[in-house]
Amino acid sequence: MMRLIAVLLALFGAAGTFAQTTLLKGVVRDSLSGEPLFGVNVIHAPGKGVATDPSGAFSMPLPFGEYTIAFSCVGYVSVTRHVVLSGSTTGTLDVRMRPSVAQLDMVVISAGRFEQRVGEVTQSLSVIRPELIRNKNITSLNEALDQVPGVVIVDEEPQIRAGSGFSYGAGSRVQVLVDDVPILSGDIGRPNWSFLPIENLEQVEVIKGASSVLYGSAALSGVINVRTAFPREKPSTKATLFSGIYDTPANTGARWWGDNNPKVSGASFSHSQRFGKFDLVFGGNAFSDNGYIGPEPIAADSLAADPLRTGPGGYDNRVRFNIGTRWRNGKVKGLSYGINANAMKSRSTSVFIWNDIDDGLYRPKPGTVTRTRGTQFYVDPYVEYLARTGTRHSLRTRVHRQVFDNDNGQGNANTTVHAEYQVQKRFDLFGETVATAGVLWRKVNSDAELYVGNADGDPRNEALNTGAYLQLDKKLFDKLALSAGIRYERFVVENAEASQPVLRAGATYQVLRATYLRASYGQGFRFPTIGERFIRTGVGNLRVYPNPDLKPERSWNVEGGLKQGFKIGGFMGYVDAVVFQQDFEDYVEFTFGQWGLPPYTMENMIGLGFMSVNTGGARVTGYELELAGKGDIGAVELSALMGYTHTLPVSTTPDERYGVSPNPASAFPPSTYLNTSYDTTDHLLKFRIQQLFRLDLQARYERFFVGGSVRYNSHVRNIDLIFVQLDTSPPPINLSTGVAQWMKDHRSGDTIFDARIGFDITPQLRAAFIVNNLLNREYSMRPLAIEAPRTMQVQMSLDL
Prior knowledge:
This protein is mainly beta and about 800 residues long. It folds into two domains: about 1-100, Sandwich (Immunoglobulin-like), CATH 2.60.40.1120; about 105-410 and about 420-800, TonB-dependent receptor, beta-barrel domain (Maltoporin, Chain A), CATH 2.40.170. The protein has a 22-stranded antiparallel β-barrel. A five-stranded mixed beta sheet has the order 11-16-17-14-15.
């Protein structure tokens, strides 16, 4: 009997509980356009909530009581609402969210792989908005990254806070992603900036500092994540046409063309639209650049009819198309899946060394031009599921294929297959906690004339990468955000294998309403690529040798920072100040030495050349200041991104003998930092730019806008000593380039100005005039490679 009574009481208690439950529902809209917002996180308790559907609607059953409901979405200011639920079967809460004008309110994903406000992120992070790409008429992402404080692109290689130097395009220490999936080439770890789909962009997030826990081996110095956008409620169509010319260089004697200046032109488009439960985005671009680098010089007494225009120069022609799809399952709520794809055909050249610093500054040294026909594509099937409990599951895969047909025996092709499963759970553990865990599998198959330095001389090589990671993010007392994670990775490249756990931890404390203190620590681990280990090639008389015994490099990074929000009238933004240090072990550098075996000839330069080697220890210390803001000052709409970065990248083992000639009878001494460096002052690492200043400012008044950019780069102080020695040596072992004089003359830095002005002809049609390198500065980011003279472009853009 007592058991029966207990059961009845339990049933009545349950019935009473159910009777005290109501349904909270509502619609979330954009405060400006009124369109519904899809994917907004609606949280009613730590780790508990739902997300809005494509019509912006949400609903969740809740017991009677008082609640603080939090709404967050990428690109919008987070909103909280207090509600009291009682005495009704349904409660209604409609919300309007305004776009994040205040930079501290911007929501990002890359730092923790879940939505966070910029102010709460424990690492240094910068954001590129799509407006910058459009306003500067950017056709390749590297041009936009050059405006990010602390970032510089040298020979297509990303450097974040001087963490990398010149490596002949191999082994990036910065991971590059498209929609959270790595896009670096599988064989050599190099980004192809023009391949990235920037026509339909949500934003680009740049993390600075070791990020290997969430993003793997290549994220030794940071991460660049390109996040594409999906359709909103209203269809959107955008198109751009532009045309321009290169101006005569400041050194008029170096002008290699006649009356017809080299031209650059292109077009791009994108369209996004919803069809019921199906989302579709597609876009593309076509680009043609005659190039400011002319053909190789040919002697006037040759048989060439026009010796100034015979042979290849620096040109770039490409066509690219991309598509994104998403199907939201109508039967299983929270389930979506789709396929994204991108493909490009290109014809281009790469130039390694200028001919000289006088009339040949904009010409290549004979034999140093590579002509390439390229085909690239990727296909990304994916599945995502948001459970009613708030747990997110995602499976992202990618098949990435590259084929580069080079004209000088350097052809290469590779296929990368990537798969990653991730689960993310919000739960209450003494406050809101987010757990992110994942496993990945990545396989690379390479077939390349370039990579025959393995034991068998076989052009076919394989690489396998597997890993697992876990990260916990937690908020305490609504002011302290903590983050900690661990990752374990295993690499196999041919017969070499290595594995390594890496850790990271960070904290952010909200001191005042708009003041955040932060500190973070992260470890990094990078396994050498197929290219670094097995490349065997030559550029002109210079040889590049393989190093099958190349070891992984490791690092740790620590930083502390203060982020302060501000408001001046209607203009809001933040100032971020940070100090940092990163230490490396078994640091990999592209270094000159006698790496070849006899017999020695003048043709192989007696075995001298470059090779990737472990050079010992290195350290980068420095500080950075960044300002980002947007808003109205009176009737003028203003946006700004500005920053200054100072670094001291040094070798901590300058005397270490890291390279010995394979010839026992060699007269060349073992390679060290000291005997291979041009300038050993402060033991500064080679090909590093220590000081960077960045500024982009735009003002709009009614239908007119005007903007400008400023970039300051201090000069590279240290390069490989051999370039200077070959420049000043007599024949037959010499390479006369003028670099010795260039290094003496260029000891301060270069300031580059860009300008733009535009007018809205109609609300949909805009015209703009853009000038890059306004003062026509003659400058080089990497000595031996000259940058572009002034360019002038006219742009027409349509937005429907």
